[in-house]
Amino acid sequence: MSSVLHKDSKMNPSPESSNDSGNASIHELMERRLVSRRSFLASSAGMTAAAVVGGTALDALSNPAEAHGWPGDRWPPADGRIGFDGVSPNVNSGFIDAVTVPAGYSASVLAAWGDPLDLGPAWNPANPMTEAVQVRSFGSHTDGMHYFPYPGALGNIRGLLAVNNEYCDPPLVNGITPAAAYATTTVTLPMVRAQQAAHGVTIVAVEKDREGRWSVNRRSPFNRRITGNTLCRLSGPVAGHELVKTAADPTGTRVLGTLNNCAHGYTPWGTYLTCEENWNGYFSNETGGVEGVIDIDRKFQIIKGQTRYGVVKGGFGYRWHEVDDRFRADFNPNEPNRFGWVVEIDPWNPKAMPVKRTAMGRVKHENAMVVVGADRKVAFYMGDDERNEYLYKFVCARRLNPIGRAMDRDMLDKGTLYVARFHGNGTGEWLPLVHGQNGLTAENGFRDQAEVLVKTRQAADRLGATMMDRPEWIAAHPVTREVYMTLTNNSRRGEKAASSNSIDGTTNAASARPSVDAANPRPDNDFGHIIRWREHHGDVGATTFDWDIFVNCGDKLTNKQLDVSDPSPVYDPTDLSGVGYKGDINGDDYGAPDGLWFDKDGRLWIQTDQVGNATGDWVNIGSNVMMCANPKTGETRRFLTSPRNCEVTGVISTPDGRTMFVGIQHPGEDWKTSFTDNSTWPDSGVNGRTSHSRAGATKPRSGIVVIIKDDGGVIGT
Ligand code: FEO
Ligand code: CA
Ligand code: CA
């Protein structure tokens, strides 16, 4: 099963060289970081305040995100003020195939798909990608990312970027033009192995030189690729369970690879979380059956389990199943159960095996946002990104240890997973997904907690969770612990003949047609909205919360009218007469919010994912964007516009807020044509020199830009 190219290399350690247990090295590293941080913080004005409030300063000593603070810190003041003039939308009259930022800022390419992570030769994008090259090169289609600074002030000029590589476009990887020809070409195993190697995570050391230019440090021992074939460990309640055992892994504890790594998270103990989103699309159930299973009821349960998550014949068209039986869901019905998890990675230990943390549930995970309470309780908020899916919260059983970060290593294996129900009166409740409670019993198909977790969606169906308009990223305010979540769109909400996810868990993925409700108030929600909540009593472990809608996105210039004549039995659509498709944004317009992040000063950064070609609904809004909003006033300005047919996703800064990293994913994407018909970013050189700008663009490449303020100030001020 495992590729010869994935054994024993630096980028992809073999099972023998991987350390998946105690790993002293992380402990040693943390101790070293602890010492250096102590001397740094001793002179920091912020130390006292942070130590008094919530006791999080000691945590921050070993938290690579320390200087951002994590939600709950009260320093710096986090007033969310915006200081730049917004840029114009990138619309079809004069479309710019570039990343554009406000006057006084500059954006330049840091790294793009296929750039080398070692001192070997750079890939020539004119050639097909190979597995051998890809495992030592920056992965495809950048998404969520986090910056892990080196200790102390050095962290503002040197650190590790952990970057998700969500997926790939097979025609780009395999060099097939026009892209539509991929559907009929003969797929080979080497082609698929190259694609699988393009997925996963890239960990790369980056640094700023004396002239202020950022670059990849190709000599760093931390540079690493984790791919669709890297050995991972299953941990938590599902590890070793019957539902995750396969012929290749009879122990049910070892999985090859992580896939569709969309957005991300980080932990207070210094690790990176990567979230498996549309993993179903790689599998195909070719026959509609289950090989070797004769019992009709058992077969029905397995197939319904697959369709609840969208595992169907053909998948998304990757065609891996044609040459790699692992992706035949009819031959290997448990293999899909080994995907859909939050995966924990130690960026500082290139030999550590990624760990799939099953206690956090199996869905199409968007991201995992941590919030630490004043009492050291730890919660992670997570969205399941599909139409009509749910919002989840995982509360760790243990509180953060005030001194020893090594003690927190397996915090994600024990805790309670909750799903949200939003009430029309502005309150909500967290419903526990615990075996034996609320009908999660053997009679209803849940024999134990492991089965509740493998079948997280079905368990949430049983509890009557609120169907949402595609939960995307979640971010938490650095002072108030108020939590925000993007709901990107749901064009099918409010269709006549309304239907809901069935309580027995048998609904096919995304097939319901829910009525509007208070938390998802617009039928045909093309532009999406952002919802936010506060836990009762400020307790991250609370089972009740208050919520409201931060913004309904939209286009103030549109003439399109909501069809308010739709029968909407749950919610009064007349309340929305002033909202409609126009939305209620206080400032520049945008739609399809996806990426979401709070900077250290409490500015809310919003990234979008729509078609990106400035046509149809997007004729006035233009290409995808990154917006900046003041959460207090709602004031919103357009900070960044992007090349054609890309998505803007992934944003993080250095601790001082003076360098920002932003991801540009799938520029030019169009499976019908040559992608260069739409975009030649970044090798056109329009945002600075790239590894191939001198040779000219042969295909667009996903990549990361560095944004700085020309006066050296904090981004957003
Ligand atoms: Fe990969 Fe939900 O965006
Ligand atoms: Ca996303
Ligand atoms: Ca998306």
Structural notes for this entry:
This protein is an alpha+beta fold and 717 residues long. It is 11% helix and 25% strand. It has one domain: Neuraminidase. Residues 1-76 have low confidence and may be disordered. Residues 594, 609, 647 line the site of one calcium ion.
List keywords for this structure.
single chain; nine-stranded antiparallel sheet; 11% helix; Neuraminidase; binds MU-OXO-diiron; six-stranded mixed sheet; disordered N terminus; 717 residues; globular; 31 strands; alpha+beta; binds calcium ion
Q: Which range does the strand content fall in?
A: 15-25%
Which ligands accompany this protein? Answer: MU-OXO-diiron, calcium ion
How many domain units? 1
Using the coordinates shown, work out and report the CATH topology.
Answer: Neuraminidase
Widest sheet, order of strands: 13-14-16-17-18-23-22-21-20
Summed up, the helix count is 9
